[in-house]
Amino acid sequence: MSAELAELIPTPDQLRLDAERPWPGLVAFREADAAFFHGRDSDIANLYRMVMRERLTVLFGMSGLGKTSLLQAGLFPKLRDENLLPIRIRLDYADQSPPLLQQIKQAIVVFAGAAKVESPPVQNGETLWEYFHKKGAVFWNTRNRVMTPVLVFDQFEEVFTLGRDNPARAAEIKEIIGELADLIEGHCPETVKSRLDQYPEEAQQYAFNHHPYKLVFSLREDFLADFEGLRRQIPSVIHNRLRLRRMHGEQALQVVTKAGGHLVDTDVALAIVNFVAAAQASGSPLLEELDIEPALLSLICHELNEKRIQIGATQIGAALLAGSSAEILEGFYERCLANQAPELRHFIEDRLITTSGYRDSVAYESALETSGVTAEMLGRLVEQRLLRAEDWSGQRRIELIHDVLTGVVRKSRDQRRLGEQWDEHHEAVLKDWRQRTAAASEAHYKLASSFRRQNLVWGFTVVIFSSVVGASLFPIMAVPEAIHPVWKLAIISISVATAILVALQTFLRFGERAEKHVIAADWYASVCRDIYQLLAFSTEERGSPKDCLDRIRKEISKIGQQSPEIDDRLWKVMVAKYGVEHHEALLKDWRQHHEALLKDWRQRTAAASEAHYKLASGLRKKNLMLGVPLVTSSNVVGTGVVAVPEDIIPPAFKIALLLNGIGTAILVTLQTFLRFGERAEKHLIAADWYASVCRDIDTLSTEERARPKECLDRIRKEISKIRQQSPEIGDRLWKVMATKYGVDIAYPLAH
Questions:
Q1: Which has more pLDDT, 280 or 261?
Q2: pTM of model > 0.90
Q3: With pLDDT > 70 as the criterion, what percentage of the chain qualifies?
Q4: By residue range, what is the domain housing residue 699?
Q5: Residue 113: what pLDDT?
Q6: b or e along 653-684 (b: 16 or more beta carbons within 10 Å of the residue's beta carbon)?
Q7: pLDDT tens across 555-598, in order?
Q8: Is residue 233 classed exposed, middle or buried when 0-12, 13-18 and 19+ CB atoms within 10 A define those classes?
Q9: Of 525, 555, 581, which marks where a domain is finished?
């Protein structure tokens, strides 16, 4: 990250608390903020005792209860006082992040260095068990005292959310769970055992019964069942656990009065506690029976204090306390985004929470590539404590400051998307697809009917010829000398003609092709019915236009790839009958230069698709021209040699059969060398690919158009990928297509 960019992002030191701002809002308390962290004395003592007692400790609780704050501002200072080195680890599951094992080792080195503790050197390929169990693997502080490392895995539930959503990390997660299991249970890894069996002398390097480390896992309670699913590998996960609960009223009062007693009197502090408790629907008048969510309490105290500072008051008065906790959360979110570009709200709501509403993170550099989002905007939101920017494994990432905001963000996102649903553009696309699928269905039915008639005519002719041949061969075989030679030659001619008809019927596959067109017609008719039904629904019943149109687009693309071609002449008739509009009429309301580029790509992909279809059609015709003579000559040879007795074949006819066999061999060689069928198939695939991109461009949603850089980059990559994998289009044909579609003849599509 550049120095200029770094200056725009507040550092943790800039966000530290002081006497005028003793509540961090939704930011977790840091170790340096321990003096302002109150209300959790008993939880700190219990957690410290459990960590000192066992090798593994599990801290769990619902979101918003302050698990990270308890660790950083409560547990960590006590551990340092007893010569333990806390190492906070939050794994990053993004594709571009380092391997998970490397992230753990990096955290050990970084935290040891920050505490001025000399740590054992990290070796490549070394397991965690080997690292900690090597003799002499000791952590020394500046006073020459041995420090015990405590690996603290914070927000470990992300292994079941972000980790599970990334299939590329699945093998790594399995491996890292195995490594942690060996550490926790004190087992020598199987890979190390195998090596020591081969080289027993290396066993002297390790202290097998000495475990100079501790581990703490912190996770959300709703993922405890997933975590307990690891107990076969790690039996200890069900022991030595602390459940963090909501604060009761007395604890909450300490948060308000001990941290900022000079800023609020006791009566107002009690009013604040009861105000926050109302969000929990408690209603109890007894202070010790109230249920308080610490994150919400901290945010409300922070917001009230900011109002106090704005009006220049010395204390938080009762008049500042108005509204509800939900209103304060929503007001906080809306104030942060007031006067900001809509693209910034879209980025937060579409990228920083998952579809199901979980908090997610984005690489900072990737965030800046989002159209309309700048470093200044993100830096301001970090200062306002809506977002957090942290370095994970050497990469700066941006995320929402706390899970308590996900409900507000998700609500805003859903309302925004509802407002964006089903505009005129979406309706026009849906109606256009309805007409196109209806036209395609009728076209395929017409082609199926035509092929069935041809199959019937050919089949009837073959049956008649076969009957004649069969009836004639019986007297020839019974009394060959009684049959006139001319009649024998006539029978041979009919036999050859029958063979040719059978060969052509086999090669042309009228019945099979008719069946394929019927299937395609049924598919298109099914999609057409679905679209008719959707158009009858209200916009609320249809759901998201993006999801709906994406689903239909994929169905149509899939059918197009699996269906036989429709003749250009027939398709023009169908298009005229159903009044299908040109897709360019649907493109509107976008920035002029982006629109021009997109239209150019639309025309180029359409031109490329038609060019590949024409090449595929030409190669298929050549394959047919070569295949029909090949099959015919093969059947003539087979019929002449096998079906007719040798003693009635004239010498001239035998010579003709010999020459025909040579010609057949030549045709086979040419067909193998020229590969007309294979080349036609490749052009057909390329044509379908380009047609798919063309459809994607035609149906871009308003939401996608709001992010032109992402949208254009995605389409450019798709076109470039297709271009690399497709066969070449000849210059002459491309010039014709470029002229037809009104584009520059320069072929590279994505420029």
A1: 261
A2: no
A3: 76
A4: 590-751
A5: 92
A6: eeeebeeebeebeebeeebeeeebeebbebbb
A7: 888 888 788 888 778 888 888 888 875 433 333 334 555 677 78
A8: middle
A9: 581
Task: Determine the residue type at 559.
Answer: I
CATH number of the domain enclosing 360:
1.10.10.10
Position 254 confidence tier, pLDDT thresholds 50, 70, 90: very high
Rounded CA-CA distance 587/584 in Å is 5
Rounded distance, CA 76 to CA 214, Å? 13
Q: DSSP secondary structure string, 36-59?
A: G--S-HHHHHHHHHHHHH-SEEEE
Count of structural domains, the chain: 4
174 plus 129 within the same structural domain? yes
- Fill in the amino acid letter for 447: L
Q: Are residues 405 and 433 in the same domain?
A: no
Place of tokens 């080289």: 199
Two tokens at 682? 């490749």
Q: How far is CA 16 from the centre of its chain?
A: 37
> CB within 8 A of 308, min separation 6: which ones?
263, 314, 315, 316, 317, 320
Boundary-marking domain end, from 420, 448, 469: 420
Element (H, E) at 274: helix 266-278
CA–CA dist 91, 278 (Å, integer) = 36
Quote the tokens at residue 379.
């830096």
66: number of CA atoms within 13 Å, CB side?
31
Whether 609 and 746 share a structural domain: yes
549: its two tokens: 């149109």
Burial of 199: CB neighbours in 10 Å, binned 0-12, 13-18, 19+:
exposed
